[in-house]
Specification:
Helices cover 47% and strands 14% of the residues. It has 12 helices and 13 strands. The protein has helices spanning 9-20, 53-61, 80-100, 139-157, 179-184, 204-215, 238-245, 254-267, 274-282, 289-293, 303-314, 321-363, and strands spanning 2-4, 28-31, 43-46, 65-68, 106-112, 162-168, 170-172, 189-192, 198-199, 201-203, 226-230, 236-237, 249-252. Strands 3-2-1-4-5-6-11 form a 7-stranded parallel beta sheet, with helices on both faces. Strands 7-10 form a two-stranded parallel sheet. Strands 8-13 form a two-stranded parallel sheet. It is elongated. The chain starts with a strand and ends with a helix.
Length: 364
Amino acid sequence: MLVTGVARPLVGRFVRRAVRDPEVDRVVAVDAVEPGHSLGGAVFVRADIRQPAVGRVLAEYGVDTVVHMDVTARSLSGGRAAVKETNVIGTMQLLGACQKCPTVSRVVVKSSTSVYGSAPRDPAVFTETTPPKSLSGGGFAKDVSEVEGYVRAFARRRPDVAVCVLRFANILGPGADSPLAEYFSLPVLPTVLGHDPRLQFIHEDDVLDVLRIASSEPRRSTLNSGTFNVAGDGVLTLSQCARRLGRPTLPVLMPAVTWVGAALRTAGLSDFSPEQIRLLTHGRVVGTEQMTETLGFLPRHTTAGALADFARHRGPGLLPPRALAATVDGLAARLGEGVAAGLARAERDRMVRARKRGTARRAG
């Protein structure tokens, strides 16, 4: 088995687990960056998947299974250009090398539900066959769209290879390292005024479990082939997430959101990209029936459970969750009372005007 992107802690955990698997003879761990964590008994090869050298690695070790995890929204070194090159050019080179390697029989590719985008006219639930309503002009969503295009082309050229694409929802957990994890770690969460998007998460432990299933020998020919949405059960709104994290929100008018995002990026606090702004405006929910019925995977953590574990390890927010919930509920109750009182006053005024009109007509 060959695994890419092993310098990332979560991928390192998968490599260590694969090394302990009695069904795996050897694990070859590949990355352009030296990992800062243990890889167990894996063979580490420092190689850039954007270069043709990865083909020699496949041939030298007679690799039969490739788990491509080096598709990510952020880089360990370099800026957005380096991320795009690794995601797109790296995938293209890797798949080209797999195509020429006769020993490769299985390819697993990490993708993302970001491929669906986030737009106001999106369906309530995306399935694996639902096309996005609006294609992204750039960013990580565009990257994964191109990556999946190369994967489909590879599958057509090598029909003898089992190809599995895993579209992960936002990954959360104790070691989560993503733009959304950075956002949820802010003391105050800027939100888009008038919007409360629906969100889904997948726990990092479940990511490891589904990778094991996707990369293992299938019980039948189609078990681990195809494209699958991977997300924990349930949905949370952004306001519910904020309350459970104990972090107050700061609603911002839509025109000012871009300025807030630029300020957060400049300060190095969060990668508040236009893509993330769209997610935090319109949200995104995917169906996971194929994950459970075809792939045979049921996550141990729900969406709410993944957020709760993330919150436990990131420490409390500015306000204890219970206190924040009580404050929000109190404000909502007072706002509701104010609205009810205003409606009652409006109704009384309407009735008074109606009586005056009736009196005037009778007098006339």
